[in-house]
Design a protein that fits this description.
Strand content of chain B: under 5%
Pfam family, one (chain B): PaaA_PaaC
Largest interface: A-B, 27 and 34 residues
Strand content of chain A: under 5%
Radius of gyration of chain B: 22 Å
Protein name (chain B): 1,2-phenylacetyl-CoA epoxidase subunit PaaA
Radius of gyration of chain A: 21 Å
Number of strands of chain B: 2
Number of helices of chain B: 14
Oligomer: heterodimer
Structural class of chain A: mainly alpha
InterPro entries (chain B): Aromatic_CoA_ox/epox, Ferritin-like, Ferritin-like_SF, PaaA, PaaA_PaaC
Order of helices and strands of chain A: HH
Shape of chain A: elongated
């Protein structure tokens, strides 16, 4: 669901439907009764491949020791502007 | 705007709502904060899964569907979330009864929206239960077979239009007091569903209060009607919090797992304390001669509901148990052609696409 123009789509919930068209209609009825969104995407659950939380440590490890990717890693000398 | 658990975190409302709605917002903020604290990821390969689970729960972090969890935790959640979902679905009946007889077009439109919300709440909750590895069809069948329960309150009849007001004020009010702490439940999908449900429930409670307020400030006959509804719904509403703490079978473990946060009696007391002042403004009397402020306890003393009656109603012998179940079974059976037609249409279209391809 895109809540408002300019925001990214965010997962809001699940539902049952026989096909994509009815899934959209059901999603509108179930998740936008109070104008919560301006756009809906529906995806069959079976089409989603998920990384398991159990794999989290190993799977996301490569990013753990690269603190230099964050700007806060660097020391900026006093007085430098626009950096 | 209600019910959006996806608004930008810094889009604070102009005024912070107080009371129960404020607590829902606080629970939502807490959920975000806990996520932001971001402890390490999954358990180490040689780590004891039970210890890891306990650590996550103790750190006020959420358990998510694919995390390891004790079997009893899973079973307890399925039972509780399913019972909650069934209650929303059966709960449409007592009020749906009055949609065609609402006193004005405005009241009819509002009541329709409210009953539609209850269906929505049932669906949010079935979806949350499904993350635990049970299907919605199975849950619906368990309800239809009478093997899972719903809240005993919906086995009482709605005899007048004022009952719709009393249900909103007292029944939805009690439900909110019960449910606000569930927004902080340790199981992520349930907590998130409850945040959404609670925000929507507050509209329900206010519309009921407004109906009663209008009646209570109308003609003497209308006032009597409001009073009669409150007389009949007060004790069943108190019973919604369940048996007294000493007799509650599931409480201790659920508290340890942070599924439940307060005891039945604590929540009941809280509800009574809230209602007294609201009743004064309504101009109706709470039907309890022993209701009085206790300065020592800083709370109201009140008469307990009849727990024997509660047990009778739970075990199937309330005024409307048979009617509610018969209606639900009939509605499910009568709707089967819609489900079949939708499935047939979807299959036909898939076939067509295959032929065209």
């Amino acid at each position: 669901m895109r809540a408002r123009r300019g925001l990214s789509h965010t997962h809001v919930g699940s539902l049952h439907a026989p096909d994509a068209e009815l899934a959209l209609r059901n999603a509108r009825d179930l998740y936008t009764r109070r104008q919560e969104g301006v756009s809906i995407w529906v995806v069959p659950a079976g089409a989603i491949t998920a990384s398991s939380p159990d794999e989290k440590d190993a799977f996301f490890d490569p990013a753990a020791d690269k603190v230099y990717r964050h700007p806060t890693f660097y020391e900026v000398p006093d007085g430098v502007a626009h950096l | 705007m209600y019910g959006n658990d996806f608004s930008a975190p810094n889009s604070a409302p102009d005024e912070a709502p107080g009371g129960l709605l404020g607590e829902v917002e606080a629970a939502e903020a807490e959920l975000r904060a806990a996520a932001a604290r971001g402890r390490r990821g999954g358990p180490a390969p040689d780590e004891d899964l039970a210890a890891y689970f306990a650590e996550v729960v103790d750190a006020e972090q959420k358990i998510e569907p694919r995390d390891w969890m004790p079997d009893a935790y899973r079973r307890t959640l399925i039972r509780q979330i399913a019972q909650h979902a069934h209650s929303e679905i059966i709960g449409m009946q007592p009020e749906g009864n009055w949609i065609s007889r609402a006193p004005s077009l405005k009241r009819k439109a509002i009541l329709l929206a409210k009953v539609q919300d209850e269906a929505g709440h049932g669906l949010y909750l079935y979806a949350a239960a499904e993350t635990l590895g049970i299907s919605r069809d199975e849950l619906v069948q368990l309800l239809l077979d009478g093997r899972q329960k719903y809240s005993s309150i919906f086995n009482y009849p709605t005899l007048s239009w004022a009952d719709v007001g009393a249900i909103g004020w007292l029944v939805d009010g009690a439900a909110i007091v019960n449910q606000v702490p569930l927004c902080r439940c340790s199981y992520g999908p349930y907590a998130r569903a409850m945040i959404r449900v609670c925000k929507e429930e507050s509209f329900h409670q206010r519309q009921g209060y407004e109906i009663l307020h209008t009646l209570a400030h109308g003609t003497p006959e209308q006032h009597a009607m409001a009073q009669d509804a409150v007389d009949r719904w007060w004790y069943p509403s108190l019973a919604m919090f369940g048996p007294p703490d000493g007799d509650s079978t599931h409480s201790t473990q659920s508290m340890a797992w942070k599924i439940k946060r307060f005891s039945n009696d604590d929540l009941r007391q809280r509800f009574v304390d809230m209602c007294v002042q609201q009743a004064e403004i309504l101009g109706v009397r709470i039907p309890d001669d022993d209701l009085r402020w206790n300065d020592e306890r800083q709370a109201y003393d009140y008469t307990q509901p009849d727990y024997d009656e509660l047990m009778r109603v739970i075990s199937g012998d309330g005024p409307c148990n048979r009617e509610r179940m018969a209606h639900r079974r009939a509605a499910h059976a009568d709707g089967s052609w819609v489900r079949e037609a939708a499935a047939a249409y979807a299959a036909k279209r898939t076939n067509k696409e295959k032929v065209a391809a």
